[in-house]
Amino acid sequence: MNPLYESMATSVFERMSLAAAARGAINLGQGFPDFGWEPAMLAEAARALTGGSNQYAPSRGLPVLREAVAAHYGRHFGQTLTADQLCVTSGATEAIAAALLATVSPGDEVIVMTPAYDAYAPLVRRAGGAVREVTLRPPGWRIDRDALQAAVTPRTRAIILNNPHNPTGRLFDRDELAAVAAVAVAHDLIVIADEVWEHVLHDGQRFTPIATLPGMAARTIKCGSAGKIFSLTGWKIGWLVAAPELAALAARAHQFLTFASAPNLQAAVAYGLNEGDGWLDPMRVRFARARNRLAAGLTETGYAVLPSASTYFLCVDLAASGIVLDDEAFAALALDQAGVAVIPLSPFAEVAPPRHLIRLCFAKQDATIDAGVAALRRARELAA
Ligand SMILES: *Cc1c(COP(=O)(O)O)cnc(C)c1O
Question: Is 187 in contact with 148 (CB distance < 8 Å)?
């Protein structure tokens, strides 16, 4: 078999979602919301589709969207960004790919903190780089400066920082961001900041972009996603933000990945960013309510639920719930015998993968959450 096939395995999200659809199972696996998007944005997209352009957009993105993104980050985080620091991409996934292609040369090493979003390692390798894992450990999942420092070698080129963090739901604190910045500055590293969850925060927390820390603006490539901000994951509109020269380099990589993204959806996202700050708080309230409902239902059923401060995911500790099956075996049982898809955490790491944790998505309507809890109750009984 072609070894490339092995190095780019089917994503665990695709694997679980396809299996869930084939069996008609409840899908608490893949992270897409089934409630709460803005009808005004859909109307704007429809208007742009029928009345606007349906031809190639400029490769760097519609000026109106680049300006809207810059203004958005100015309002929310006090950043002063110009349009030449931005490139619109087909989702944050493409922004991450472009950032890696722009920075990693064959033989370079990239530090990835695991458990990590499953796209990073295959993309680093296809850019010719090698992955150096730094293991975060439950239940705290803290970034340890010494561990990060110890992973740096003369070949290290970049650190991928995902904050807020998927799959753990952690929002890293000031000290942890300062540790990443200190290591990056000391060794002249690029930080690829996957900050797609920047607005999906619970319990009144505040997010700090790592680019705003001293010394970081010049060395950060930030990846953002309208899919996550507006619960419109299927649109795949994202962007990268960096210092002008670095942004130009990543934009060149983007030219040969997708070249440009759907202009009508870009126009609707620009509308959403310019009109939509008032939508963020109600979204957070809905997500926090859904998180509390799922966590309460699971706790009542005897599951040990880990805290989730951000994203629309929470993790369950199977071992602490009295379940001896590992994560993959439990996920298979839950799907086959109880009719509910969950995500095992072990595919999110290669060195020391956690095998006793699963991730659940709570961005679902009450009825879906309740049906999911009932199915997980059955799975627990079957696993006992
Ligand atoms: C969802 C997600 C992405 C991908 O974002 P898209 O805009 O859908 O491409 C990237 N990173 C993390 C951590 C995510 O959760």
Answer: no
Give the residue from 154, 212, 204 showing the smallest Cα distance to 180: 212
> Is 69:239 a contact under the CB 8 Å cutoff?
yes
State whether the beta carbon of 112 lies less than 6 angstroms from ligand 1. Answer: no
pLDDT value of position 240: 98
CA distances 146 to 64, 151, 163, 172, 209, Å, are: 43, 9, 19, 16, 22
DSSP β-ladder status, 357-361 and 343-344: antiparallel
The CB of 162 under 6 Å from ligand 1? The reply is: yes
- Pocket lining: 310 vs ligand 1, CB cutoff 6 Å: no
pLDDT for position 7: 62
- Which tokens is 305 given? 């639920």
| pLDDT beneath 70: ranges in the chain | 1-8, 36
- The closest residue, in CA terms, to atom 15 on ligand 1 is 166
User: How far apart (Å, rounded) are the C-alpha atoms in residues 204 and 207?
Assistant: 10
* pLDDT of 320: 97
Pocket test for ligand 1, best of 69, 198, 225, 311 (most atoms within 8 A of CB): 225
Helix boundaries (H) for 127-216: 145-151, 174-186
Nearest CA to ligand 1 atom 8: 91
Cβ–Cβ < 8 Å for 84, 100? no
Binding site membership of 225 for ligand 1 (Cβ less than 6 Å): yes
Burial state string for 1-23 with b = 16 or more CB within 10 A and e = fewer than 16: eeeeeeeeeeebbebbbebbeee
pTM of the entire predicted model: 0.96
Please compute Rg for the chain using Cα positions.
Answer: 20
